[in-house]
Amino acid sequence: MTDRKTELAANLARVEERISAACATAGRKREEVTLIVVTKTYPASDVRLLAELGVRHVAENRDQEAAPKAAECADLPLIWHFVGQLQTNKVRSVFSYADVVQSVDRKRLVDALSRAAVGAARELGVLIQVALDADSSERGARGGVGPDGVERLAEDVAEAEGLRLDGLMTVAPLTGPYEGRPRAAFDRLVEISSRLRVAHPAATMVSAGMSSDLEEAVAAGATHVRVGTAVLGVRPRLR
């Protein structure tokens, strides 16, 4: 085993211990929580090592990095999640590799993704990104639609050809009433998810929590946690 693979294996084991412990504390089964490894800024060689170590879900947030990396790893049995803010002019590229887009926050983006799905004759999983720093249906500082806009946007996704409404995603806010309170933010997301499932029972995915707050996300009821630094190490500075 290479040094890098050994390092990744040890990091994955530590993250697995954290998730398992959080599930036990919350009275949940370990299989209720899926680990998504965020591989942004790291090379395709790391993605290959992660796949060898059993990782199946990976995430990226910048198309210009993700597209060539995904192409290089196209032979691997991976599920690719796009988690960054997405401009409509990047939709066709992102659609070429992403299985799930977690950052849908406006109807214009829904329409663009639907056109791409219809053109490619395949279905795309979609999560609505909820901005908990936005008091209304406006977009948040890090993307996302305010809680008041979730229901309308969910209808837009449900009515869009080629798209599958899988659930909700959030990023712990840096400002507003939930600043420094990730558990409260994730509780709020789960509350919004419960309401959403009344009209859309298949939208069961709740994506929340990162390296620093995955325990809070699991405690709140997240089904997916997005972990990068704790698995891959401190990220190189972007140029």
Automatic annotation (TrEMBL):
UniProt record similarity statement: Belongs to the pyridoxal phosphate-binding protein YggS/PROSC family.
Keyword tRNA processing in record: no
Cited InterPro entries: Ala_racemase_N, PLP-binding_barrel, PyrdxlP_homeostasis
Domain called Alanine racemase N-terminal: residue spans: 11-236
Organism of provenance: Streptomyces hygroscopicus
Descriptive protein name: Pyridoxal phosphate homeostasis protein
Gene3D superfamilies: Alanine racemase
In-chain residues carrying the UniProt-annotated modification N6-(pyridoxal phosphate)lysine: 40
Protein's job: Pyridoxal 5'-phosphate (PLP)-binding protein, which is involved in PLP homeostasis.
Keywords noted in UniProt: Pyridoxal phosphate
